[in-house]
Amino acid sequence: MAKKPQLRAEMLEVKYDAEHWRLLRKLRREAIKIMDVLNNSHIFSIVHGSIARGDISEKSDVDIFIPEVISSFIVETALERAGIPISRRILIQATPIYSIKAYIEIDEGRSVSFPLSNLRKTEREFYKFGGEATLEMLKQEIRTPGVDKRLMLIEPTDEGHIESSIIGRENEVAKLLGVSVE
Question: Which segments of the chain are extended strands (E)?
């Protein structure tokens, strides 16, 4: 079931328990392992979404994204040399005008994706909008703000995060995230 935008004006502080922090560290370690392999092959990558923001759940996936056009052969070779198996390959195009993206699925919860043609500005900003983190940010345990599927802004704190609706605050949130309002 799709999550609907929340129309709440207030902010909600969410404090993470020990289990949440444990799961976040585990998922980030999995991301670091894959991103290290890519980095060792001179492939820049990011992790995006809940792992970058910190508001993970048991259903969170490790989604690694390579923001530049690259040959799938280079990506697959880097993964295979490191002993990371590839379970399937998928091509996805969200709409007819969006760039086709390749998805290399490692297993049900881990994947690496990359565009097969240059991304439009808004396509690239999508990852920043949802929150993205580099390999160095993960290693330094830095979380980043971003917007979840409910259109709630997630702003990391030392104890968890603060969430608030972006509805009616689009300009402010775009500026915070470094993206255009579009």
Answer: 12-15, 46-48, 62-65, 88-92, 101-107, 110-115, 132-134, 146-147, 152-156, 160-165
Position 31: which residue type? Answer: A
Q: Whole-angstrom Cα distance, residue 10 to residue 163? A: 9
d(CA 123, CA 114): 12
19-48 residue pLDDT tens: 999 999 999 999 999 999 999 999 999 999
Sign of the CA dihedral running 144, 170, 15, 126 = negative
Displacement of CA 75 from its chain's centroid (Å): 18
Which tokens go with 120? 């439009």
Rounded to two decimals, the pTM is: 0.90
Taking the C-alpha atoms of residue 94 and residue 103, their distance in angstroms, rounded to an integer, is 13
